[in-house]
Amino acid sequence: MNGSQFRVGLQLYSTKEIFDKAISGNGNIPIDAKIIKEKVDKYLQKAKDILYNFPKADQKQFTNLFKSEADLKVHNKTNLEVLFQMKIDELKEEDRAGSACFYEQSMLAFKKFRKDFYLEDITVQYLKAFRSWYVGEGNSNATSQIYLRSLRHIYNRAIKDGYISAGHYPFNEFKIGTASRSKDVLYPEQLKALWEYETKTNGEKKAKDFFFFLYLCNGMNIKDALSLKGKNIRNNMISFVRAKTSRTSNESKEIIVYLHPEAKTIIERWGTLNTKDYLFPHFRGLATDVERKHAKDVMARNINRDLRAIGATLGFEVNLTLNLARHSYATKLKIEGVATSFISDALGHSNGSTTEHYLKTLPDQKFKSISERLLKF
C-alpha cells in the first residue's frame, strides 16, 4: 500500500460506553462489549489478511476486498471471485460497462460450474471439465472459449502480481481454440426480399431502416452507429474507430465508409446530419458508458424484436437481428468476388483470419453454377 493511509467505514451498533469497554479490553467486560470486540477483531484480521495476500492493492481495491463477503483465503487458496471482482472494478472505474458486464458473466458461469472457485484449483482437468459441462448444458462452444479466455487473463494477472507461480500455469497444455462456425447471414435474394418488404408499423420501419443503415455502412456495429457525431462525416464519407477495438489496439484503425444516399436518408429520418452532437438521438445527454450501454441495449432489443417478426413473415430460416447486417455485408462482397483483404479493411479487422469467421459459405446456387461450368472448356 506504499504507506498510504485512508479511512474505511464500518457498521457497528453500540453505545459509546459499551464501545469504549470493548476497545479498552480491561478487566471483565460485559457480553455486549465482548460481541463488539469480536467484530472489531474480525475486521482488523481481515484488513491484515488483505495487506498480506494482496500487497499491491490500491485504496479502491482494498476497500472492495474489505467489504466483500467472499473469503480471501481458504486453506491457503486464493479466491478467484476476488480477483475477478478486482478486474471488474477496474473496468467500471474506466467507464467500460460492456467489458465489466462480460467479466461478471464469465465469473457467474464458472461459479455455476463449481461453487468453490479458487486459483490453485485451475488445472488442465478443470478447464476440460468446464468446457464439457458448459457445452453439455446446451451452450455454444464459442461462448465457452470466450469465458475461458477471460479466466486465462485473470490467471496471467495473478502470476504477474505474485499470487501464484508460473509453474502451475495450465494454459500451455490446454488449448482454448477458436470457433470456426460460420455466422448466420442473409443472402442477396433474402436481402432483396427484406428491402422490398412493406413495413406495417413505425417500429418495423425503424427496424428495417437501421438494419440497412448498418449494412450500407460496412456492416457497422449498432454501438458505433449510435456513437457517430457530426465530426465523423466529411464530404459524403464517414470515418470512425470501432469502440470494440479503440481501447485494446495500440494503433486505432480508422474505418472509412461511403455515405450511401439511402444511409443519409435514414439519418435524416431518425436523427440529424446538421449537428456537432450524436447523429442519432439515443446517446445525447448521456455522460457515462454505463448509461450509453443501457440506452443501446434497450434500443437494440426493441429493434431486434421487430426484425424477428419481419423475418418470420418473410419465411427466413435464420433469426433476423441487427448482427446479420455485418455478416451479410461481408458475404455479399465475397459473392461479388471482392478480395478478403479489402473486406477485412472494410470491417476493421486486424487480420484476415478474423474476417473468415464472418464469411458464410457461398449459397448452394453459387456452387451449382460453378459446377455446371467445370466441363465447359
Structure description:
The chain is mostly helical and 377 residues long. The protein is 55% helix and 4% strand. The strands form two sheets. A three-stranded antiparallel β-sheet has the order 3-4-5. Strands 1-2 form a two-stranded antiparallel ribbon. A hairpin with a 2-residue loop joins β1 and β2. α4 packs antiparallel against α5. The mean pLDDT is 81.
Write the topology of this structure:
Layout: H1 16-24, H2 31-53, H3 59-67, E1 73-74, E2 77-78, H4 80-93, H5 97-113, H6 124-136, H7 141-160, H8 188-195, H9 202-216, H10 222-227, E3 233-234, E4 237-241, H11 243-246, E5 254-258, H12 261-270, H13 289-314, H14 323-335, H15 340-347, H16 352-356, H17 364-372
Antiparallel strand pairs: 1-2, 3-4, 4-5
What descriptors fit this protein?
two-stranded antiparallel ribbon; three-stranded antiparallel beta sheet; mainly alpha; single chain; 377 residues
Quick synopsis:
The chain is mainly alpha-helical and 377 residues long.
Q: For the record, give the distance between the C-alpha atoms at the N and C termini, rounded to a whole number.
A: 78 Å
What is the N-to-C succession of helices and strands?
Answer: HHHEEHHHHHHHEEHEHHHHHH
Fraction in beta strands: under 5%
Note the main sheet.
Answer: 3 strands, antiparallel
Query: What is the quaternary state of this protein?
Result: single chain
Share of helical residues: 55-70%
Q: What is the tally of helical segments?
A: 17
Order the strands across the largest sheet as they lie in space. Answer: 3-4-5
What global shape is seen?
elongated
- Which class of secondary structure composition applies to the elements? mainly alpha
Total strands: 5
| Gyration radius from CA atoms, angstroms | 27 Å
Low-confidence stretches: none
What is the mean pLDDT?
81
